[in-house]
Structure formats: structure tokens, C-alpha cells
Specification:
Blueprint lengths: L2 H24 L10 E6 L1 E2 L14 E2 L1 H13 L3 E2 L5 H6 L6 E7 L3 H14 L3 E5 L1 H4 L6 H8 L5 E4 L6 E4 L3 H16 L3 H14 L4 H8 L3 H8 L4 E5 L12 H19 L5 E3 L10 H9 L3 E3 L18 E2 L7 H8 L2 H8 L1
Parallel strand pairs: 1-5, 1-12, 2-3, 4-5, 5-6, 6-9, 10-11
Antiparallel strand pairs: 7-8
């Protein structure tokens, strides 16, 4: 089964689950699944631009969708609080559900398009910055690939021990190739894999670090963002590698150096940290201990709502993404019902 078909099936399953959740929620059922509230994950917030090939479409929503989502959550009784205030909320007797907003990777559009929406709604938000992106020393491999795979009808790439021709004549071939490259990055030495993708990109006339500069905020941009009402900057490692696959020393250095980098820019030591990728393959119990040992509230991308006894070093988050950004979808996700149903399977 191709990567494209698998992705479509998964999207269909999620859409079906959201439809069921909307029905149950409308009937007043499973209200306990909402828990104490939810932390939401976003990446890009920018105007929609149609594209034939858009492998990272799940990482973006429009400003209009964000505005509608916040309005819907307000209507549903959610109180907007900062991530830094979440531990106190969970320890309190206040049973009003809360919504916490986070954005990973510190894209430029977080300042240009997301921040005005959050400020308008009086919603605090945390942007997680990666030192290597801020300093333009590291590339965003998924963004590099999205651009690279559209350059030519084929590429030569050495996934294992021999060069291989990768065909890229159709969107389906591009998507299949993207999935294969993603597995290549995430199944071995991530730094070496990204370096090889960058090398091939440069050979094709694409500068990965120029792309980093175009897409993400630099130190001045982060300073400007941090001055906005309700904004805070969290740490997101140095190189955006999955911590679980690193040595103890390297994993700790990724956390400590990124915390220090944010403090050097904003003058405030960040109290929060986001694990790159954030799923079960990318985050280990050791990584949680390291984050906790440095006094950090840390967020994953494991889906779910918040419980009173939530582990503050492994908090779940709900993705507001390009495939499910309608207000009804956000409300259904916030209900917690889809995740309760998934556990019951």
C-alpha cells in the first residue's frame, strides 16, 4: 500500500471519529472526556496558497481558521491561559476547562499572522524556538524536501549503499518519495541523514539555510514576538533531533543549550520545552527526567486532553492542522471523545 493511500485512509478514519465525537458531544454524552482542558499544537499560521504538491499541509492553518477556532472554544466555555500557568490550574479546584496554545519551530508567520489573532482574543501563547533555526546553522529538512522534490522529474539519492533514481513526475510519486525520505531521517542517524539531504539540495541549486532564514524567526524576530501581550518563548532543542535516539550527554545538551539560547535572546529563562516530533518514538522516559530535572514543563505531540494528575514532563497536545481546522473539528478534538474512543478500540 502506497504512502499516499495510507495517508488518505488515516485521514478518513480521523474524519469519521470527529463526526462521531460531534454527535456524542451534541447529545451531552462523554463530557468527562474533556478533562481539565487541552493544549493545542500549531506550526504555520498563514494565508492558504494552492499547491499541486504540499506534503506539509498538515502543519499549517489559515489566520481565519485560527480566529474561528478561538471563537468556538470561547463559546464552548474554555478559559485561555498561558502554558506557564497550567501547573497551578491543574493543582487548583477550578474545574472550568482551559485552552493553552503552543506553536512549534518559531516560523515567521507566527509573528505576522498568528500573534495578531491571539492578541485580539486575549489568548496567551507560547512559541517554541530551535536554536539552530534561529541562528541559521540548521535546516528544516521537511521544508527542504518539500521544495527539493518539485525541482526536477527525478533525483539520484543514496538511501543505503548504492545510488538510486527517485522518480518525481507526479504528485503521488513526490508524496511517496517524501514518505521514504522521512523514514530515512527518522530511522537512523538523523544528523547524517539531514546533512545528506542538504547536500543534494545544494547540488540542485537549493540552499537549505536560505530556506531556514526565509521561513523562521531570527533573534530580532523572537525579541519582537516576546514583547507582545501574552507571548512567551519556550525551548525546542538546538538541532531539532529526536532526543530518544541521542546519547544521555547529547540529549541533555540539546535541552540545556536551547534553554540558554532563549534566555540570551529574551532575557527570561524559559519555563517550558517542546520535544521535537514529540511522539512515542521520539521521546523516552529519560528525556522526561532530563526536562524535569531542569525544572521545565514539557509538551509532547501525544494526543489527548489534560487530567488533574498529568505528567508535567510529558503533557499531551492536540493538533490544529490543515486537514482538520474547521471550528467544529477543533471543538470535537477538544471534547476528548476521539481519544477516549481510540483507547477503547
Amino acid at each position: 500500500m502506497s504512502a499516499v493511500v495510507k495517508r488518505l485512509i488515516k485521514r478518513g478514519v480521523i474524519a469519521g471519529g470527529l463526526a462521531v465525537a460531534r454527535g456524542l458531544s451534541a447529545g451531552g454524552l462523554m463530557r468527562g472526556a474533556r478533562g481539565r482542558g487541552a493544549i493545542f499544537t500549531l506550526h504555520h499560521v498563514r494565508p492558504f496558497v494552492p499547491a499541486v504538491f504540499s506534503p506539509n499541509a498538515h502543519l499549517e492553518i489559515t489566520p481565519q481558521s485560527l480566529d474561528a477556532a478561538l471563537s468556538r472554544l470561547k463559546r464552548d466555555g474554555y478559559r485561555f491561559i498561558a502554558l506557564a500557568d497550567l501547573p497551578a490550574h491543574l493543582a487548583s479546584d477550578d474545574r472550568r476547562p482551559v485552552a493553552v496554545f503552543t506553536l512549534d519551530d518559531a516560523y515567521r508567520d507566527n509573528l505576522d499572522h498568528a500573534a495578531p489573532v491571539f492578541v485580539h482574543h486575549g489568548a496567551p501563547f507560547t512559541v517554541f524556538a530551535t536554536e539552530g533555526f534561529v541562528k541559521r546553522t540548521h535546516s528544516l529538512w521537511w521544508e527542504t524536501l518539500a521544495a527539493l522534490l518539485q525541482e526536477k522529474p527525478w533525483l539520484i539519492f543514496e538511501f543505503e549503499d548504492w545510488p538510486e533514481r527517485i522518480h518525481l513526475q507526479t504528485p503521488q510519486q513526490m508524496q511517496t518519495a517524501f514518505a521514504r525520505f522521512a523514514d530515512f531521517v527518522q530511522s537512523g542517524d538523523e544528523a547524517a541523514a539531514v546533512a545528506e539531504i542538504d547536500r543534494v539540495a545544494r547540488a540542485e541549486g537549493l540552499d537549505p539555510l536560505a530556506l531556514t532564514d526565509r521561513l523562521t524567526l531570527d533573534a530580532a524576530g523572537l525579541e519582537a514576538l516576546a514583547r507582545l501581550p501574552g507571548a512567551s518563548i519556550g525551548a525546542h532543542t538546538v538541532s531539532h533531533r529526536a532526543l530518544a535516539r541521542l546519547s544521555d550527554a547529547d540529549a541533555e545538551a540539546e535541552i540545556v543549550r536551547s534553554v540558554e539560547a532563549v534566555e540570551a535572546i529574551t532575557g527570561i529563562r524559559p519555563s517550558s520545552f517542546a520535544y521535537p516530533y514529540g511522539d512515542r518514538r521520539a521521546v523516552s522516559a529519560r528525556d522526561m527526567r532530563l526536562a524535569g530535572g531542569h525544572g521545565l514543563v514539557a509538551v509532547t505531540t501525544r494526543p489527548g486532553t489534560l487530567a488533574t494528575d498529568a505528567d508535567l514532563t510529558a503533557l499531551p497536545r492536540i493538533s490544529i492542522n490543515g486537514h482538520f481546522q474547521a471550528p467544529g473539528d477543533v471543538a470535537a478534538l477538544a471534547s476528548g471523545i476521539p481519544f477516549r474512543l481510540m483507547k477503547a478500540r
